[in-house]
Amino acid sequence: MVGIFDSGLGGLSVLTAVRGVLPLADVVYVADQSRAPYGDRPAAEVLQFAREMHDVMARRGTTTTVLASNTISNAALHELRRDHPDRVFVGLEPAVKPAVAATRSKVIAVLGTTGTIGGPLLADLVRRFAGDVAVIGVALPGLVEIIEDGLGETPHAEAFLTGHLEEPKRRGADVYVLACTHYPFAITSLRRVVGEAHIIDPARAVAVQVGRVHAATGTGRTVALTTGDPVRFRNQVAEVVPGLAFDAIETIA
Fold first, then answer.
1. How far apart, in whole angstroms, are the C-alpha atoms of residue 21 and residue 132?
2. In the predicted model, is pLDDT for residue 62 greater than 90?
3. Do residues 238 and 211 touch, judged by C-beta distance below 8 A?
4. 95 or 119, which is more confident
5. Per-residue confidence at 253, pLDDT binned at 50, 70, 90?
6. Among candidates 234, 230, 220, which has minimal Cα distance to 251?
7. C-alpha distances in Å from residue 42, one per residue of 66, 89, 120, 127, 191
């Protein structure tokens, strides 16, 4: 069984991509909504939450765990791999390397939470791969909440993005990296703001990696667990990802 973990709805972009690669795999999706968002929390706190939610998934029988969040991957991926060497973990990192390969203007923008933009992982990727390319990190505190409220593809989100992306647009950024799994659910709003610039969504690459490490067989059952209100979760999913269905939605006690 595959476990996919995020603080809220963002990991649904990864779940959708995983389903495209592994339609028969059994999946449990965990949303720690009662403590979301994670983006502005200290890394040590995020690590503790990740350990707790990993244990929830392990008790459900997961063998592959996907940390469907740059913030969670930054805080917990290495530690979870160290603590559980017998289990498979797939994490996210900002797609700096492919963005550098794609840019023509030599300016790229990485969009993420405060924890991701200010974290050591992004700094290391920039050091290793950016070369002579300027990397503008843009923290977007508040965008996760907009998306969780079902407003990612609205004039409100577009206005929010317009106000936060003045610098990369002024400097000619032609590649925008989505370093938060929530942000694909505002991609139309983002497109209106950045025009023809290239947008990199990591969900497909993560799903391909899951397909490499996890068996394709199963019943195709998909269960969601939330630390929040399961009725609200179901309504949010219907707003953000119409057509995505769960066989069951349960509360984590």
1. 35
2. yes
3. no
4. 95
5. confident
6. 230
7. 21, 22, 13, 23, 31
The CA distances from residue 118 to 1, 25, 71, 183, 196, in Å, are 33, 35, 10, 18, 27
Spell out the long-range contacts of 244-251 with Cβ–Cβ below 8 A and sequence spacing 24 or more: 244/12, 244/15, 244/16, 246/29, 246/222, 247/221, 247/222, 247/223, 248/223, 248/224, 249/223, 249/224, 249/225, 250/223, 250/224, 250/225, 250/226, 251/225, 251/226, 251/227
Average pLDDT over residues 1-26: 97
Beta strands in the chain, from DSSP E residues, in sequence order: 2-6, 27-31, 64-67, 88-90, 107-112, 134-139, 175-178, 198-200, 222-226, 248-251
* Residue 119 or residue 80, greater confidence: 80
**Quick one: CA dihedral 220, 251, 202, 183, positive or negative?**
positive
Structure tokens that stand for 115 in this block = 């924890």
Provide CB contacts within 8 A for 36, sequence distance 6+: 7, 8, 144, 148, 228
